[in-house]
From TrEMBL:
It comes from Pontibacter arcticus. The keyword Lyase applies. Belongs to the serine/threonine dehydratase family. GO terms for biological process: D-serine biosynthetic process. Its cofactor is pyridoxal 5'-phosphate. Keywords: Lyase, Pyridoxal phosphate. InterPro entries: TrpB-like_PALP, TrpB-like_PALP_sf. Residues 14-300 form the Tryptophan synthase beta chain-like PALP domain. One of its GO terms (molecular function) is threonine racemase activity. The keyword Lyase applies. It holds the Pfam family PALP. The lineage of its organism: Bacteria, Pseudomonadati, Bacteroidota, Cytophagia, Cytophagales. This is Threonine/serine dehydratase. It comes from the Bacteria.
Amino acid sequence: MKQDLLDCQARIVPYIHRTPVLSSQLLNDLAGASLYFKCENFQRMGAFKFRGATNAILQLTAQQRARGVVTHSSGNFAQALALAAREVGTIAYIVMPRTAPQVKKDAVSGYGGHIIECEPTLAAREKTASDLVQKYGATFIHPSNQDEVILGQGTAALELLEDHPNLNAIFSPVGGGGLIAGTALAAHYFGNNCDVIGGEPEAADDAYRSLIAGRIETNTATNTIADGLRTELGDRNFPIIQQHVQEIIRVSEAAIIAAMRLIWERMKIIVEASSAVALAALLIEKGRFEGQKVGILLSGGNVDLLDLPFGQTKAG
C-alpha cells in the first residue's frame, strides 16, 4: 500500500491542485495546540473527492473509458467524477436523487455529467446505477468504498505529512469512509507515530458505533447539517479504519456550526459543514492535544450560500 500511495500521487499530480496548508494563531490559542489545516476546499470542484475520482478514472483501460463511468451521489463525488471524466475525455453517468439541490445538479451538468434522477433511497440509487452499467457497459466507480478512490483521497494527508512530517495527529471527517481510510494509510506509512482521529456527527454516528461493534453499523436517520457525512462505511474501507484509526469523536450540531463559523470568521475561508466536523471534534477534546502538532483536513467548500446556518448558534 505504501508504494500504491506514491504511485497514485504521481498519477494524479498533473490533474489536481496541491492545496495549501493554513494556520491561525487565534485557533491555535483556542485549541492549545499548533493546528495545520489542509485546505481541500481549494481543490478542483471544491472538495477532496476529485483526487479519488481522478485516480480511479486514470486506471481504466481505453476500452473502459470509451464506454464511460457511472456513480451515484447527491453531492461532491457527483461533481468530482463528472469533472474527472471530462478531463480524460470520457462520459460520466451520474445518478442523483430527484430531491438533490438544484445547485448541485447544475454543478454536475456544468462539468459535463449526464444526470439520471431516481427516488431518494439507497436502493433506488444502486438499482439505477446498475441498470446504467448494464445498458452502456460503463464502469461503476464507488464514491468511497473502492481501493482506487481510497488511495486517491489519501494523497491529501500524504501532502500534509510531506509539508509537516512530525504531526502528532490528523483529524478527518467521517462519512462514507474513503477519506479517513486513505488518511489512515498515509499516516501509517508516512507519519511519525501520527494518530488518525475521526470526527462524526452525533446524528449520523454509524462509524463510531461500527468501531465499537466490530462490524459495519447503519443509520436509521441522518438529520445532520453535515450532509456530506450522511453516507455509511463499506467493506473496503472499514477494515482499514479498524486497523489504523485510533478513535472517532462524535460532535453535536451546535458544535459543528460553531466550528464552521470559527473557520469562516477567523480564517476567512469558505468551508462546508462536513469540513467543520474535524475541528469541532478537536475542540471537544482539546485538553488531550495540548501542545501537540495537529493536522485538520478541511474536506470541501461547496455550500449553498442561500442556506447558511450561522443564525442558529454562536461560536464558542
